[in-house]
Design goal:
Layout: E1 2-4, E2 7-9, E3 62-66, H1 71-82, E4 86-91, H2 96-108, E5 113-117, H3 123-137, E6 142-145, H4 162-183, E7 192-196, H5 209-229, E8 235-241, H6 248-252, H7 255-259, H8 277-284, E9 295-298
Parallel strand pairs: 3-4, 3-6, 4-5, 6-7, 7-8, 8-9
Antiparallel strand pairs: 1-2
Helix pairs in contact: 1-2, 1-8, 3-4, 4-5
Length: 305
Amino acid sequence: MSTTGNDQYTEQNPTNQYDQPDTQGKEIPAVGEQGSTTNQMDVTPDHGEESYRGSGRLQGKKALITGGDSGIGRAVAIAFAREGADVAIVYLPNEQEDAGETTKWVEQAGRKAVAIPADLRDEQQCQQLVQQTVQEFGRIDVLVNNAAFQMAQPGGIEDIPTEQFDRVLKTNLYGMFWVTKATLPHMREGASIINTASVQAFTPSPELLDYAMTKAAIVNFSKNLGQSLAERGIRVNTVAPGPIWTPLIPATMPSEKVESFGEQVPLGRAGQPAELAPAYVFFASQESSYVSSQVLGVTGGAPLG
């Protein structure tokens, strides 16, 4: 630690700011197990529960976050609430426990929390969740399309069943499209849409072929939509995470991949959801008022193509 006057600044090497999740010798959910929740993880992610400090950058805003119950979505919900926003989160019905934990943190920040169970693969449910959010908040200022599904298939395209392909596309693309379309009539000038893509959109892994192609589509969708909504004063941007430690990882990847997850990036470790939240706050706030149709990579040093 170095100090100057009354100010204190703690130097932190990003390579060891967090330990690499140590899963060796621990029970890992079987590949394909659905409904994996945070409390099922032997190594709990950091969502910023004890570290995030708000400064009023989203005071009075109303936010809707899909996939907001755990992982990146929970970290964003906590950060938004501590910045002054009321938050609605969307979660799968079998992930109610995680959703309750997230709403607890939002309420502890003194903001209103709404938890909405929905399956984004159904257009009517997408429309209904937006209507419920508007009924609670009156409008939507920030939409975060964060929900996603992946399932690693080491054999590539020949091992991807149609059922999986359909689920990945419906969750990652159809859901985003339907929720965004339903939300736009309830947004006013100054609103912001933030979509979660991935480093996979730029440097895809063969075992995640279907997931990676949806993330590339999200980048294209966001750049395109940002241009078309500019005249309405609505900005659209994308966050592209690298390897981030969330419940989706141990539930959908082979155990040998989980044990080394994130070690391939220059910083040498998996990222934590708390390290993603500031990127979403930036795009949601007026600090990024001249930024639209852009992609911000939070990748542990791995360059975006």
